[in-house]
Amino acid sequence: MVSEIVFHLGDPKTGSTSIQDTLRTENWICPQTRIIYPARINHIDLAKSLAPEAAFWAKSFKFRGVARRISGSDADIAVISAEYFNRVDPKVLQAAIHKYLPKYADTIRLVAYVRPHADRLVSAFAERVKVGYFTGTLPELHASTKRTGTFMYNDRFLAWRAVFGARFTLRPMIRSELLHRCVVEDFLNFTFNGADFQLVEKIESNKSLSLEDLAMIRELHLVLRTKSHLEKTRTSVGLNMGRILASMPTQTGTKLRLPESLVQDVIETYALDAKRLDDAFFSGTPMTQALMAARDNSTAVVQSIKAEDNFDPNQLRAIWAWRTLTLKLLEVSPWQVSKKFKGLREIELIERAERLGHKRQRLEGP
User: So what's the pLDDT on residue 314?
Assistant: First the structure.
């Protein structure tokens, strides 16, 4: 019988896909504690049901569905996970918990991971290019997010603690600060309350793409963005192309880095927020140290995301041919693209879960 629920809140670009894949495939051995993860992939729809613009019936429908699955389980702990919770008002989530999950209101635990500011800027740039949200330059993204305060963390996380108190935990997404330098193991350690466990198989999802990979995907998005009827397919296409490229690692790809010319402004922009996070949530100064390390991880070369600056004419010809063919295929039935990709992803996770289940049985023995 489930005695507590763990809410995994993200943040974006902190290994959430790896955590969710691990939960969905039950990729661990822990004799003392059993987990139920009531989701096919993640709980984005559940989190979105808390948004002000959500349909009036969505919250009740989604939360009651999850509550039924949890109440019918003989597991010890339930886990709910979605990056989208980072956009949710903590008070709105608290109200939903009291209404739809009242018996767990006093035992719920929440955990979020926070990526250092400079790293988050670079990773957010890569992610937004990959899914077609952004086609500009890294300095342009910095100027935009600096103006909007997108990567200012402290006040947002303080709001979570103000509502949930000690039941909210913030962890730095810094490998040296994580259990065994692994966010998945760190998360499972939190979820299992420190009980002994082991991973059945190391899984790292959503690996970083190279500069060349991003330049190629951007070339496709430049065309997709001109087709209004394909707007809803861009994210699915970008995510799945990124997943394919990440599964085909290259030894010659260029790592995306912050340009030296931008480093000082990035440090000055986020220094106070980093200090406040360190003071409020962490022992030591991990966020400040990570921000200052941006100098060491930067590049003197101004990296261009344009395809023509990363590929020779023959390679460009092949990319443009692939782009044209992909566009024609997407236009055949654009309304089915996202649904098809989601279905394929679910099948992939089901098959992985079956394989890991057999491996887990062998490791556990008779």
Answer: 98
Give the Cα separation of 145 and 152 in Å (integer).
9
Per-residue tokens: 277: 């996070």
| Separation of alpha carbons 233 and 236, rounded Å | 5
CA angle 44, 45, 51 (to 5 degrees): 95
Contacts of 63 (CB under 8 A, 6+ apart): 46, 49, 96, 99, 100, 101
DSSP structural state of residue 3: -
Q: Which residues does 151 contact at the CB level (< 8 Å), separation at least 6?
A: 117, 120, 121, 124, 145, 270, 273
pLDDT digits (tens, 9 = 90+) for 291-302: 999 999 999 988
Question: Taking a C-beta distance cutoff of 8 angstroms, is the pair 238, 221 a contact?
Answer: yes
C-beta atoms surrounding 309 within 10 Å: 11
Q: Which residues of the chain have pLDDT under 50?
A: none
What's the half-sphere exposure (Cβ side, CA atoms, 13 Å) at 243? 14
- Which tens digits make up the pLDDT trace of 103-138? 999 999 999 999 999 999 999 999 999 999 999 999
Q: What's 73-116 look like in SS3?
A: CCCCEEEEECHHHHHCCHHHHHHHHHHHCHHHCCCCEEEEEECC
Question: pLDDT for 236-274, tens place per residue?
Answer: 999 999 999 988 877 789 999 999 999 999 999 999 999
- Report the side by side order of strands in the sheet with 109-114: 35-36, 77-81, 4-8, 109-114, 168-172
Assigned token pair, 355: 């394989």
Please answer whether residues 69 and 5 qualify as being in contact, where contact means their C-beta atoms are separated by less than 8 angstroms. no
Place of tokens 């996380």: 157
Contact, 19 vs 184, CB < 8 A?
Answer: yes
